[in-house]
Design goal:
globular; seven-stranded antiparallel sheet; 2 domains; nine-stranded mixed sheet; D-amino Acid Aminotransferase, Chain A, domain 1
Length: about 290
C-alpha cells in the first residue's frame, strides 16, 4: 500500500447501503460536508478479524451526528453489520475501519436542513501508527501552538471532521521539526491531548490523565483506564498544568490508531518509558487480541 493514494486502493466501500467499487465512492464538489465540515467519523481497528469495541464506536458515531444536528439513517446494528461485512469483503483480519457520515449537496450554504445524510464505510490495511522499532523507546512530541477550544464554542464531544483542522496543523508543524506528534493545551492553558490521542502520565506509581471536559473521552482511553484499575493501579483524572510535566516519570498516549504508545519527550520535558507504560502496552495488546 505504500505510496498508493487512498482513492486508488483496491476493493469495495459500503456507501449508503450498497457496496461500490473503491474508485466509484465519490461525492460532488459542492457537498456540504466538504465546505462546512458537517461530517462525523470514527476510527476503529480490527484484530484477528474482530473489530475492537465496534458497537461503542458506532454509538459514538450516532451521538456525534446528534451533536451536529443530524440523524444517521441507519441503526447502530445496521452500521455494525456493515462494518463487519466490509471488513470481510476486503479480505482483511487486521485493519483500520473508517465509517463517515456527512451532509450532501442538496443545499449549498450554511443552512442545510434538507440535505441528505450519507454514510460510507471504508476498510484498509494500516500498520502501527508509529514506527514499531521506536515505539518502546518513546516517541517525541512537540508542544502545539493551537489549543483545544472552549466547549462553549464547539461541539467538543463530537468526533467531527472540522475539529481536526488544528490537529492537522499541529501535527504537520511537529513533523516538520522532527517530532512524531504534538501535545495540545486547552483554552485555559492546561494539558489536553495529542492531535489524535489522549495522554497519560505517571508519578510514584499513580497514573494521572487530564479530565476530558473540552476534548474527546477516547474509547481507547476508557479501555486503558479500566485495564489499569483492574491491574490495581490508581488512576487520577484531573486538571494538569504544563509545569507539572517536569515532575512526571512516565508518559504514554492512547488512541485507536496510536493504541498505547510511550512518550520520551514533550517539548523541554523528558520521560523514561518504564514499567507502567510497558504494562499498559501489554495489557492493551492482550485486550484487543481475540481469544
Amino acid at each position: 500500500m505504500a505510496g498508493v493514494p487512498f482513492d486508488q486502493l483496491d476493493g469495495e466501500i459500503w456507501y449508503n447501503g450498497e457496496f461500490v467499487k473503491w474508485e466509484n465512492a465519490q461525492v460532488h464538489v459542492l457537498t456540504h460536508g466538504l465546505h462546512y465540515a458537517s461530517a462525523v467519523f470514527e476510527g476503529e481497528r480490527a484484530y484477528g478479524g474482530e473489530i475492537f469495541h465496534l458497537t461503542k464506536h458506532t454509538e459514538r458515531l450516532h451521538k456525534s451526528a446528534e451533536y451536529l444536528g443530524f440523524e444517521i439513517p441507519y441503526s447502530v446494528e445496521e452500521i455494525d453489520n456493515a462494518c463487519k461485512e466490509t471488513l470481510k469483503r476486503q479480505g482483511l483480519s487486521n485493519a483500520y475501519i473508517r465509517p463517515i457520515a456527512w451532509r450532501g449537496s442538496e443545499m449549498m450554504g450554511v443552512s442545510a436542513q434538507n440535505n441528505r445524510i450519507n454514510l460510507a464505510i471504508a476498510v484498509w490495511d494500516w500498520p502501527s501508527y508509529f514506527d514499531p522499532a521506536e515505539k518502546m523507546k518513546g516517541i517525541r512530541l512537540d508542544i502545539a501552538k493551537w489549543r483545544r477550544p472552549d466547549p462553549a464554542t464547539i461541539p467538543c464531544k463530537s468526533k467531527a471532521a472540522g475539529l481536526y483542522m488544528i490537529c492537522t496543523l499541529s501535527k504537520h508543524e511537529a513533523e516538520a521539526k522532527g517530532y512524531a506528534d504534538a501535545l495540545m493545551f486547552d483554552y485555559r492553558g492546561r494539558v489536553a491531548e495529542a492531535t489524535g490521542a489522549n495522554v497519560f502520565f505517571t508519578k510514584d506509581g499513580v497514573i494521572h490523565t487530564p479530565t476530558p471536559d473540552c476534548f474527546l473521552d477516547g474509547i481507547t482511553r476508557q479501555t486503558v483506564i479500566g485495564l489499569a484499575k483492574k491491574r490495581g493501579l490508581e488512576v487520577v483524572e484531573r486538571a494538569i498544568m504544563p509545569d507539572e510535566m517536569a515532575d512526571f516519570e512516565e508518559c504514554f498516549i492512547t488512541g485507536s490508531a496510536a493504541e498505547v504508545t510511550p512518550v520520551s519527550e514533550i517539548g523541554d520535558f523528558n520521560f523514561k518509558p518504564g514499567p507502567i507504560s510497558k504494562a499498559m502496552v501489554e495489557e492493551y495488546e492482550k485486550a484487543v487480541t481475540p481469544s
